Amino acid sequence: xxxxxxxxxxxWLKIMRIxxxxxxxxxxxxxxxxxxxxxAQPILSKNLTLHLNNVTLKSALEQIxxxxxxxxxxxxxxxxxxxxxxxxxxQNLSIILTQLLTPYGIGYKVVNDNIxxxxxxxxxxxxxxxxxxxxxxxxxxx
Length: 142
What we know:
By secondary structure, this protein is of the alpha+beta class. The protein is 35% helix and 25% strand.
C-alpha cells in the first residue's frame, strides 16, 4: 500500500509560483492604470505681447492663437465681430483673455490644449457709481 501525502513540496512550489505570478500581474496592471491629474494651466501662464488697435475680436484671437500655438473653439452663437483695442506687454494669457472677453459676456475654459469660449449669462456692463449718504442716529433709553 502506498501512503498518500497531501503536502508534497512539488505541488506547493507550483501553487506559490502561480500565486506570485498573479500578484506580479496585478501590481503591474495597477501601476499602469494609476493616473495623475494634469492641469492645463501652463497654457494660460504663457506671456504675450500684443498691440491690437481697432481689430475684430476674431482677429485678436487668431493672433493669440499664432503666438501661443493653442486653438480657440467656440460656437456660432458667440459673436466675435466686435472691435477691440488692447496693448499689453509680457502679460499672462489668462489676464489677456479676461480683459478681452469679459466685457462681451464671453468666458473661457481650458480643455486639453484647446481654449473653449462659452457665453456667460449677461455681458458685464459698467454701472455708474452712486454715492449714498444716510445719517443714522439712535437713542439709547435708560
